Amino acid sequence: MAQKPSIPKGTRDFNPEQVAKRQYIFKTIQTVFETYGFQPIETPSFENSETLMGKYGDEGDRLIFKILNSGDYLSKVDEDLYAEKNSTKITSSISEKALRYDLTVPFARYVVQHQNEIEFPFKRYQMQPVWRADRPQKGRFREFNQCDADVVGSKSLWQEVEFVQLYDAVFTALKLEGVTIKINNRKILSGIAEVIGAKDKLIDFTVALDKLDKIGEEKVKEEMLGKGIPQSGIDKLQPLFTLSGTFEVQIQSLKSILSTSEEGLKGVEELEFINTGIETLGLKTAALQLDVTLARGLNYYTGAIFEVAAPDGVSMGSIGGGGRYDDLTGIFGLKDVSGVGISFGLDRIYLVLEELELFPEAVNKNVKVLFINFGDAEALYSLKAIQKLRAAGINAELYPDAAKMKKQMNHANKRAIPFVVLVGEEEVKSEVFTLKNMAEGTQDKLNFDALLDAVK
Amino acid sequence: MAQKPSIPKGTRDFNPEQVAKRQYIFKTIQTVFETYGFQPIETPSFENSETLMGKYGDEGDRLIFKILNSGDYLSKVDEDLYAEKNSTKITSSISEKALRYDLTVPFARYVVQHQNEIEFPFKRYQMQPVWRADRPQKGRFREFNQCDADVVGSKSLWQEVEFVQLYDAVFTALKLEGVTIKINNRKILSGIAEVIGAKDKLIDFTVALDKLDKIGEEKVKEEMLGKGIPQSGIDKLQPLFTLSGTFEVQIQSLKSILSTSEEGLKGVEELEFINTGIETLGLKTAALQLDVTLARGLNYYTGAIFEVAAPDGVSMGSIGGGGRYDDLTGIFGLKDVSGVGISFGLDRIYLVLEELELFPEAVNKNVKVLFINFGDAEALYSLKAIQKLRAAGINAELYPDAAKMKKQMNHANKRAIPFVVLVGEEEVKSEVFTLKNMAEGTQDKLNFDALLDAVK
After folding, report:
1. Which value does ipTM take for this structure?
2. Which helix or strand (DSSP H or E) is residue A435 part of?
């Protein structure tokens, strides 16, 4: 094979530095998840196709990676079906498993399958890869990781309060200060649609409203008119386009806009509860902001809707999102299990931390001490010291070959190893170590205890 | 959907306790890998099919999970080929990607693809799932994790010495004392085949020899005869069947058996080097044992061969293995890159630790403190304390609903939460917390600082 090997488009290799940085983010999120009482589960990479198909809409079904059955899979395909040569129709006959598309549906499946072992309310987190046959582009991959935390089995709004705190805790721990946690409520959107006389056009209405930031007030109104929302309704919306002030002030405006909608007022009340809680408890570095244009995953969420925006000045889509869904497990036959959850966008958080240079310097668990190899006797003497350094938790290694000194020093340089130990015949005889500090260029003869102190 | 959902055979859901135990093993191995100077890489879950196919033999090719192409994949299949309806022939036309089958071939691909960015010798570790369409059975899954450490780019035998130390360090850290690290050398097997005049029958010979423990000396000899190995050769083997004594004594016997084989003597010399190093450096809890019947992965290894056996009394196959392979990357066009590596069998190690009850009690990062919810005012007061506990690294949570006291206490019991805090109207007024120690059944009224001390 003369050609250099490659990997499928939309997938990535991660080198040691990248893995270390990703693990740093995972570990930070995981630690916060655990202090908040979430516990980890893991589900298989592939599920039975019927578990996934039909759960993400037609587009989702197309983007799910299907796994070919093993063995003589064609022998089980009906002759007439085969003769049609129709990819869509034949798929379910030659593929019965598919790769996980997100973590939510497998979680719902898990809850239903294990309902008798689970003690509700159940707070779980899950950090695993998912796969989507999407067209790859900048920041969009065919294999990427999701980090989700959800609670199922309680409708308490304290959970929404805690999720806002949790977002704040994670981004504070990552030193990513100044993120905005946007919040909305599906009931407010429904209430508005009701008030403006477009209850049946909720989706058209929110799709248009969602574009307010991008296309501006006039174009949004045009789009609404085009979708058949009456001018009188749009007029009633006017206060919405200029909603401003503190969270509490906006709440009061919404109360007046929605005064005739029971559902809308319920949504406002929920938002107010969450905001009051957060006002009292305080946030460390994030800000909570009401965003009545927020409508992500509309068909799915039934209460609170969350989205997290990177700090001002960083151009990046949302770095987290989530919300309340009142019937997560209904698709698998378990009714009336309310859930609320949030997700972290690992790849985008990575890019933001990179851009703002927020990764800790020591994130890469690089080797700290390299022992130069001058031959077998010296190597064995060195390995005795290395053994003790490792037992003290210090990443240390011996250059495996008695190569030229220059080659070995170059190796230490290229790998940015901070300390090099030189052990020649003389050092072995006098039981010392020559320690070279690569950054400072200094060199000292030390006994083992002094060496350990120096590299610690 | 009335039927309870399920997962594909050979795959597993992991509940919080299982995930915590698995993470404990991963984390222990990872920490040791890093102190030994290994650095992590990750590769995509699926590779281009041509990267994997043909690398694991015909049986391996069959066991690789193939991913169906997206879109109208049948439209690209040639009419004549389609008409044949032959699964084997059609696969490469409808599937161009496949799930990782092990970590070694993707690593070889990685090294070749990134050879210009890599500083050799390159010490990498990798802990990721792999997939095999094997018939599932006890302890054999279709999705399982591998944990590999390899060095490429040096032929130094010090690396073999360090891998023996590394096995010892990991199993000592896991408190799994008394494992046996078996070692052999491919060159010794070749040497023996040469000496007994069956050089062309190396594989038949080692396959038979490998069964010595299971079927006994006589049957092994019968099998060798049956495979055309001459009686005179088998006679020369006699000392091999009764090889015993210390490592050093066995080495001396081998030297005499192999006195006429240059390759065999080279193998003995390598073993002796490794054993001398280990004798000098010492092992903490494991034992190194020469096992001349060890022949795993024969077509692959060219020098040292390792296998780790669980402590006596635990019936379990090998819990680790590895060896030296002199041409890992040749399959991808990069010649003369020697590698040596080892692997840990996570699932089997898990079962052994479970059987011997070696998992630490605190492995499950369970919630430590549950605050009973008596209503919104009390809940808010509780959340202020919970916030401070979490900041101190203590896993704490509020029961989300103001449910009946009994229900909330049952919840704490079922989840084995060690501390429960009761905050009623009175506690809020006097700014105290009633702490109940669930194991001891004791109850105390404490201020926050005393509460923090008590649950720490």
Report:
1. 0.94
2. strand A433-437
